[in-house]
Amino acid sequence: MKPEDAYNPGMDRRGRVNWYSELPPVVERLAAAWENKGYCDQAGAMPIPSHESVVRIIHHIRRILFPGYFTQTNINTDNLEYYIGQEVNILFEDLSTQIQLALRYDALNNNACCDCPAEGGEERAAAFIKKLPGIKGVLVTDIEAAMEGDPAAKSRSEVIFSYPGLLAITVYRVANELHKLGVPFIPRIMTEYAHSLTGIDIHPAATIGDSFFIDHGTGVVVGETTVIGSRVRLYQGVTIGALSLPRDAGERLRNKKRHPTIEDDVIIYSNATILGGETVIGARSVIGGNIWLTESVPPDTRVILKRPELVYSDKGRRRLQCGQTRRYKGKRYECTS
Amino acid sequence: MKPEDAYNPGMDRRGRVNWYSELPPVVERLAAAWENKGYCDQAGAMPIPSHESVVRIIHHIRRILFPGYFTQTNINTDNLEYYIGQEVNILFEDLSTQIQLALRYDALNNNACCDCPAEGGEERAAAFIKKLPGIKGVLVTDIEAAMEGDPAAKSRSEVIFSYPGLLAITVYRVANELHKLGVPFIPRIMTEYAHSLTGIDIHPAATIGDSFFIDHGTGVVVGETTVIGSRVRLYQGVTIGALSLPRDAGERLRNKKRHPTIEDDVIIYSNATILGGETVIGARSVIGGNIWLTESVPPDTRVILKRPELVYSDKGRRRLQCGQTRRYKGKRYECTS
Amino acid sequence: MKPEDAYNPGMDRRGRVNWYSELPPVVERLAAAWENKGYCDQAGAMPIPSHESVVRIIHHIRRILFPGYFTQTNINTDNLEYYIGQEVNILFEDLSTQIQLALRYDALNNNACCDCPAEGGEERAAAFIKKLPGIKGVLVTDIEAAMEGDPAAKSRSEVIFSYPGLLAITVYRVANELHKLGVPFIPRIMTEYAHSLTGIDIHPAATIGDSFFIDHGTGVVVGETTVIGSRVRLYQGVTIGALSLPRDAGERLRNKKRHPTIEDDVIIYSNATILGGETVIGARSVIGGNIWLTESVPPDTRVILKRPELVYSDKGRRRLQCGQTRRYKGKRYECTS
């Protein structure tokens, strides 16, 4: 017996508890639990798309779409094309790799192929990059929509620098093109990254027209099968969602149209909820704040909540009667209900 | 008089204003203000738990719980146990240190002890690590709940990669175990980090059963003394909170049960608010969106808002009468109120 | 003809598609699109304020305001003044540079001056730093307000370490001083950074008194021309906003008072919406959750929603009648509507 074996396991030579001795059985259970649950697919020899790389790609694309805004590099009209050219080349390589990983990982998940295809990354990355001028054109209309819709917007630069709505829409438009190119995983990782930064949760498969403006934005949800026209404006907390889902909804409703259609020039105020795959909000309609709608609305219609009844009382919780008025600092307050 | 004293204070030798000369009195006031206010405890020789370290620990735990998902390291069944073993050892050291700092800092805050205890970190870190296989087992049920509840979920991998609900629940389950081990500060720093990433604010002292699913999640609040059963599903904007709090609530209600109990298999739709320590939502009940509830609901009950009255008008703000129908694109729209 | 020209463009020598050959025309279109749209101002030789630097400045200011909380540096009463002094000097240099860039960039945007002024950065940075002791004094009242208002707050340290409301208020108070000093861009970048971390969107131009507490906070919006008194408390999802804005609102309403006035000691519960530039909530009033208000409320008034009518049904969707009671686990549930 070697000397070190003479010590009580769990104690070191000075009689202190050796907490390290507790760890090995935990490690065994952790490794085993994962294997048993059929969750070990991703723990193969094959690397997977990296969250960090996807975030880096988003910021890269943003620098290409808005040159000069998100970098300290000196850019002028002489070097602009050179700058964009260099950035586009780096993007192409980075994106090709990540798409490749996502495709292989998806194939591995679906077919358990041991020798999954190692192609398709460069092709899709190139196809995506060809979409960038179009994306940029649409984003310019989104910036104009912010200038038109928000009195607090001081300049286009302020919108680009600091508006969370524009960030969320930029990421959505990028993710949507990747989604349409059949790229798995990456589009959703992108929109969830924007969601974490802005509180705006737009599914990459949603369809959204030009000149889209979201003000403030925290709590906005736009579901997977939503269709939104041109020049639509949303405020914070608006949900474009699905009707109530039964317990087993996941399986039964996958790939069905479950979310509304919002036609051109609609405005939807804060915290309104619009639900259901057959619900259509007609063009140029205005939906008031806090409204809960599960039915279609014709074009050119304003819908607001009937004035909710409020209960007024004083500090002693004595009810203030309707018709009573109070004066304060020369102002007259009606008890309106 | 030395030459440099000859210059007007606030000017440099070239007669330009020297703004640096304005800084020292500000520094004095800043240092003094802090000392006078009794807020200088943390400015002692003793280091405090580091926000950065706590964030690093969260990501470390996530890599252990979901090996292969959040790292570029090649992991395969041969090296899985070795990989987890190494990660667990690093976690143990890092977590021991931070718990130790939190315990000492808490003791310092409470007792003003000059020689606060330097023990308890390793013991609690080891106890926490022993809980990891159990946490992993519960998280597998949470992933299954997402697959079951969300038609947009394409695969378990997508849920792990990108679902904010799973991130918030993972961090809550970790923080809750640390809370139960009596670790101060760190659990709340952890859940607030998840809150900042997801908009989901779960207090680490809440009690939550297995198979928990939060969809979208922005704006969800789950209060300190909430009790939630198994297989519960929440949507964005749901508050499980306290009844209205008087001005001096902080002192009087500390450590009282102030938040509801949600029994097994309950579904609560978006933006519902459920308040009060005696409020119980019975098993298998369904709570509709936008509802404000301060009373208990029996099991197996559906509760929805009475259809709110909506006011429809046309663009000229002329009221559209009830009973009137309009046609648009072959669809018939009822004026429903 | 050189050998390389013999290859079909788009193919490499081994006959594989060369996707790189697709990139140059895209780069040209990207560069051209930007120039044509009049959006190329920022792509000048002049550097612009950097988002990264502004974030670094926020964290710097936080370390000065709360020494010891957000750094691992050992700070004690002997070195406190030295520590703050050093931090203030670094802040001064960093902030001067960024303000300078923002001023030049703003002048460039407005005047298209080719030789825009290179002054004003140091002056404003020094003026801002002189405000820091005052900001710190107000933040101490904000911390006390959190202790008073939140039963879950265990200590002042916990509030400083982990409360998102305090983070948002700190950044707002800093941004508001910079806004009052006429610094462009930077204040809004700051508050949008806090918005992204906390879900709390406070415009830097809003006016807010001492002892301000926001609990949970996700979804809170405080608009540009809002005026809030002392000792006001807000919960998650509260909007202090503008009335519905017409399509061309951006231009017509810029710089008008569009947001409410909230007097001293008001409490506004979760998800309440208060709108309009002439709306005044009188001192000491309490506004209930979920309320939608577009009119003034006198002082010392409680306003709550009339109890909404709920519809109860059983699992077979059979309506449960009013007056009916059910028993479950010894409790009696009234059907209340």
Can you lay out the helices and strands and say which pair or pack?
Three copies of one chain form a homotrimer.
Chain A lengths: L22 H14 L14 H15 L14 H32 L9 H29 L6 H7 L1 H17 L5 H13 L2 E2 L4 E2 L4 E2 L6 E2 L4 E2 L4 E2 L4 E3 L7 H4 L8 E2 L4 E2 L4 E3 L4 E2 L4 E2 L4 E2 L7 E5 L4 E5 L10 E4 L2 E4 L3
Helix pairs in contact in A: 2-3, 2-7, 3-4, 4-6, 6-7
Could you give a short description of this structure?
The structure is a homotrimer of 337-residue chains. With 337 residues, chain A is α/β, with parallel strands linked by helices.
- Report the order of strands and helices of chain A: HHHHHHHEEEEEEEHEEEEEEEEEE
Q: Which stretches of chain A of 5+ consecutive residues score pLDDT under 50?
A: 1-9, 36-45
Sheet with most strands of chain A: 5 strands, parallel
In CATH terms, the superfamily of the largest domain in chain A is serine acetyltransferase, domain 1
CATH fold naming of the largest domain in chain A: serine acetyltransferase, domain 1
Number of domains of chain A: 3
What is the CATH architecture annotation of the largest domain in chain A? Answer: Orthogonal Bundle
Overview of this structure, please?
Three copies of one chain form a homotrimer. Chain A is an alpha/beta fold and 337 residues long. Chain A has three domains: 46-199, serine acetyltransferase, domain 1 (Orthogonal Bundle), CATH 1.10.3130.10; 219-245 and 254-306, 3 Solenoid (UDP N-Acetylglucosamine Acyltransferase, domain 1), CATH 2.160.10.10; 311-337, no CATH class. In chain A, 39% of the residues lie in helices and 14% in strands. A five-stranded parallel sheet of chain A has the order 1-4-7-10-13. Chain A has a five-stranded parallel sheet with strand order 3-6-9-12-14. In chain A, β16 and β17 form a beta hairpin. In chain A, α4 (121-149) packs antiparallel against α6 and α6 packs antiparallel against α7 (186-198). Chain A is globular. The first copy, chain A, starts with 22 loop residues before the first helix and ends with a strand. β15 (310-314) of chain A pairs antiparallel with β14 of chain C.
